[in-house]
Amino acid sequence: MITDASPAAQPELEPLSETSEEQLLEIAMGPQHPSTHGVFRMNVVLDGEHVVRLKPVFGYLHRNHEKIAESETYLGSMPYTDRLDYMCPITNNWAYALAVEKLAGIQVPERAEYLRVIVGELTRLQNHACLIGFLMQDMGSSGTPLMYAFREREKILDLFESLTGARMMCNYMRFGGCRVDMPAGWLEQAQNVVREFPRFLDEYENLLVSNEILMERTQGVGVLSKELAINAGMSGPMARASGVNYDIRKVDKYSIYERFAFRVPLGAHGDVYDRYMIRFLEMRESLKILNEAMRDIPAGPIVDPKMRIRGFRPKPGEAYGRIESPKGELGFYLISNGSLNPYRYRVRPPSLINLTVLEDLCIGQNVADVVAILGSVDIVLGEVDR
Amino acid sequence: MSSLQSYLLLSALLFSIGLAGALTRRNAILVLIGIELMLNSANLNFIAFWRYGPAPAKLTGIMFAIFSISVAAAEAAVGLAIILAAYRHSKTTDLDQMNSLKG
Amino acid sequence: MTVTFLILAVITVAGTAAAMGLRNAVHCVLALTVGFAGVAAIYLQLDAQFVGLTQIMVYVGAVAILAVFAIMMTHTPLPAKPPTYSSFWLLGSVVAAAVFAVLAWAICSSAASTQGLPPEPEVSVQQIGDALMHQFVLPLEIMGLLLTAALIGAVVIAMDRREETK
Amino acid sequence: MVGEGILKGLVETARNFFGSYVGKDRLTTVQYPEERLPQIEAARSFPFLVYDGPDWDKGMRCVACQICEKECPPKCILIKKSADKKPDAVGKPQFYPAVFNIDISVCMSCQICVEVCPFDAIKMDVDYDLSTDDRFGDLLLDKERLAKSNEYYNAIHPTEAAAVDAHFAEERAKAEAKAKAATEAKAAAEAKVAPAAQEQPVGGETQ
Amino acid sequence: MTQALDQIFVLTKQWLLGFVPASAQPICSAILSVVPVLIGFPLLFAITTWLERKGLGRLQNRYGPNRTGPYGLFQPIADAIKSLTKEDIVPLTADHTVHFLAPVLLAAASFLGYAVLPIGRNMVLVNMNAGVLYFFAVGSVVELAVFMAGWSSRSKYSLLGAMRAIAQMISYEVPLVLASIVAIMQAGSLSTVAIVDKQAGYTGIWPHWFVFTPWGVVGFALFMIAATAESNRSPFDLPEGESEIIAGYYIEYSGFKFALFFLGEYLGMFATSGMAITLFLGGWSAPFSFLTWIPSYVWFFAKLLALIAGFIWIRGTLPRLRMDQLMSLAWEFILPMALLNMLDAGIWHFMPAGVLRWLVCTAIVAVPCVLLGQGLKRNKKFQVRTYQFAK
Amino acid sequence: MNLETIKSELEAAVPGCRLELVANPSPSGQHSLRIDAAHAVAVAVCLRDAPGLRFDLCSNVTGIDWPGKQTTEKVKLRKLVDGTQQEVEELRTTTTPGSLEVVYHLFSIEKKHGPIVLRMSTQDRDANAHLPSLTPVWRSAELQEREIFDLFGVVFDGHPDLRRLLMWDEFVDHPMRRDYVGPDDYEYEPTAHDEVLRRANQHLSEAAAKLPSEAVGNQQSETDGNRLSEGGGR
Description:
The structure holds six protein chains of six kinds.
Chain B: H1 4-24, H2 28-52, H3 60-90
Chain D: H1 4-22, E1 47-51, H2 67-71, E2 77-87, E3 93-103, H3 112-116, E4 122-124, E5 140-141, H4 143-146, E6 147-149, H5 150-156, H6 158-192
Parallel strand pairs in D: 1-6
Antiparallel strand pairs in D: 1-4, 2-3, 3-5
Helix pairs in contact in D: 5-6
Chain F: H1 3-13, E1 19-22, E2 32-35, H2 40-49, E3 57-81, E4 84-107, E5 116-121, E6 130-132, H3 141-151, E7 155-157, H4 194-210, H5 213-219, H6 222-233
Parallel strand pairs in F: 2-5, 6-7
Antiparallel strand pairs in F: 1-2, 3-4, 4-5
Helix pairs in contact in F: 4-6
């Protein structure tokens, strides 16, 4: 039982000099490349157009967020978390707040939990819509799906703005609740957006789902096996597309997700098409959650009244809190030594860890597939490099 | 000039240039190109003879040229394919180094 | 007429000479296309429109492209390493020069080559088609066979061995 | 049938093409300098300092407690405390900032300074047309440029400002009541003790 | 009056030629014919870029350019000024001569095709006997220019782009020519003017365009697919695949040379569209007999713009194909269909006119089309999937 | 899942392994298990494969720096002073070496339980900062262990591709260590924060004093120093 240390066999690459019959071409995709979603580089070795090797290069956006957090107060790191995965700042806030709440044992009032679920699922909607748009953009569709996605994202960002004051850098969560309650009329506005959203999804579906070119480009491309997905720590839609039934909303039952009836879609093939369809289906499930949450939201305080903004010192100890962010498992690991600042602050970035298998997915594929695969992994460099 | 003679001279010149290239170049592809050039000069002759010939309406020269071009195209395709195959074998297109039958 | 011919002849000869003389193989092919185009223009000038256009299509559009493709695929060093020419380049040049001398002598001394230009013939594409389909139908068939054979042969020869094993 | 999905997609884009001429919900672009979105009350850009009354320097609420300077995550606030004191909105003598700088090229608009301020002195502005060709000078806002009137605050964040004003009014009323009580007590005392002490000066010369 | 309006350009040219001595007339005539083409089509290019950006914008729920001039109409001028004033950067290791020549050759070659396009009644530069052949012959020069650009830049991306471009253009030249052969077969001539003349005339109000026959519509569709690939338009824009190899063969070009590539691409698109119009859409003839009073060149440009709108529409909708899929589409679908289509055209020619001819010819192309499509789909094993949910 | 039972199960499965429960006083209640480096891989494989445990998802891997402490205490000593035994008070400094700790958070996808927290410590923070890599067991640790190697300087033996992840290859220090001092050759923005500039300049001069001219020249060119002071003067 103990002898075998590597069941998920890593692809063993023969040395290049022996396999290569012809001269190989090594190109650097990125850091200035339209499809690397920011400053990301892949050193790709090509044989013709086929990828023989691919080495991702990280760190162009590295700002040592974790080090900065060690000199900030607990609250002071909250606005920095917005800037991790700037596509979904609110879920980042949430994960951090959750970790601190675990660390200090803070209870969250019910209304705040509902608010968190509402904004969190709205974030998931806009992230998934944009991701599909970007993926299509990478496959060369002149930005049309992306623009449609942005059109809908705009509406959600408007909601965020009128709730939190900022469109992207929301800084919304507080330990033990949320920063502000929703203004008058916000709920109706949000309900409107949620009611209109399925129309957009139908439109998207017409445009994309049965498109032959898209199916040809994505089906059977970048296949990730279930075993590798588990072993390599894939999370979120990336893992579920490979058939891994693991949704932290269901597993950890954090916040109040137990109360909502939603399903977890699973893919059977683990290719780019599955990853893309899983996101489609997740958006539909998110809409269900949103509808229920908006219907049931109770009145009450939005933040634990005992929580103080200044001078927050959790007792010594440590905690790992994680949520199902749109990209996957976003976790924060905090160690407190009883002072104002965390002794250790660690972000478990789903984007980075989902990139572990990038080379495995890309080898043997075409250059054109590499951008599609990278797009389907769904990374944001702010989170990868931190 | 500009009579048949000048065309024939041009054709002869092209032929010699092609021949010189085929004989002197080391690169197999360029040698093949030299041969193509020689074929071309022959075509030029056909056309010139047809045009200055007694019965241009009979199109014989043109037919010859068309067939010759087709043959040349086929020859180029096969020739380049052979060069590619030879390159795979010996990793060079240098004829001076491709002198061994064993490879 | 004469002027046009002279210009075209100069272009053709310059192009082909450059094609055979330049060191960079890609430059050679590009120069060669100039030569081919010149020859095509001479065909046009000789009222052989169809052949001229076919020449452009086949030589410029196919043979030259094939050649550059072959150059790219064989990773010919660009520009070539110093010995661009074969070890017996002197002999080759002499042979070529001799051939030209003999040909030129023969042409100049031939009586037939001095005759004047006959009236412009009426050559429509339709006529060529008719001729191909009636008088020359057998050669056409053979040519078709040859081209097919060449196509298959080229594919088979150039096919990657790795592909075969799959 | 092959091509069905492609045709469906073509129909969808065509619908959007014509829809963008008909429906407002399809063409959401706002032509920025000419049109602007309605101002959202919760919006925030960069902090400013609130002052009461007509004179920005006199009426500034900030008491240079330096809490915001400490709490600011990117450390973009610089405060130097004054040596003397000035009466604040309520009338209590307080310190005031001799220097109050915010480097908005560093500021990340997180609003934490606003949340931690116990004096409702620093608030978030909504102005976003802040581009400038002077990278350093114009992006370093000093006290004078930071100071905005309470009326302005009321205009951009009415609900919030109303609450603040009410709070201040309450405080002031309390202070007045206290002062009144004090004066009454004093008067009572005066009635008892003949040599009346003059009212305490409210200026900053104490300390 | 209609006649005069239709022939206004021809008459103007003749009137102008009256002023020059007879000896200079041929050259002046050539200049007078060529110059309008050299001006008109770049102008159309400018208009098209504006149209494309506007149309694409609307497809994507945007306004498109709307800042320069009314409705952004001066955008092409602004673009031109911008590209002219940009620094011309040549990579240090590039082959300077070839690098310079490539865009020039590309633009020049793109212009050459217009010589045989009849853009109106009696409005063709050269009524060449082998016009269609000429068109395809000069079209093949573009490949060389593309190769020159990609090779001379000494960039891996541009080399990849050039290889892709050449492979794609060579593969699609064959179906392009084969698709057009049906029209040549029916017209019995390689002359573009003769092909257009053959399509003149109306049955009732309905024109005799080749596209209104079973083989014609298939030929037209195949021709347009191949033309899209030939002119590197989306979804076949792999050689410049923005998101994959950035700009492909012209990645190392900037300023005016870049603009020349752009110009070349659009001119190529116009030329192939013009050829499609000539071959299948009746050239400059009016779509209905009662509309013949509108000048012929108007019809030509109207059809051209309609086809360009189609290009823009497709560009705004479809994602890009992959190289191997592009190739398999050419060899497994378009080429067999084109060959079958030739057979179909032959059968059409020899069958007596009537309903039966229609039925037989439609069946000959429709059945294989469906079968090939199904085969393609089955080979690729793609399908719309259904998904399961975890319990 | 009780950590105690896991511990006993592991001890039964991996003979000779030394496991230690580390209590976590915070309300999160995530107690952890310290494993020894020698048996780490075996323990990990057991955790992953044992049918009752099946911790197949290694979610989070991170490092913690525990720098060495210098504690000074007054000790009374008997000593010979001037030939006589005397009780002398003396300051004694004890230096604990400090260590780098690597923490693994494991979950089970199959059984849906977790987390279990594994900890491993290096012997010290310098030469012996070696730990066995668990990447062969959980592939997800690949990039995270690289990151720890990069930012903390823990060398993972058995890692397939141990290179720097976020910092560039030529970088020498490990920025996440507690005692790391950032270099001053950052392009400091001229800012209103004189404090930043003061610190930068101070650090610069300290560095100049500490190191002989050559090393300073490498790290910090003359012009940079000038630029900083210019920025400060603005």
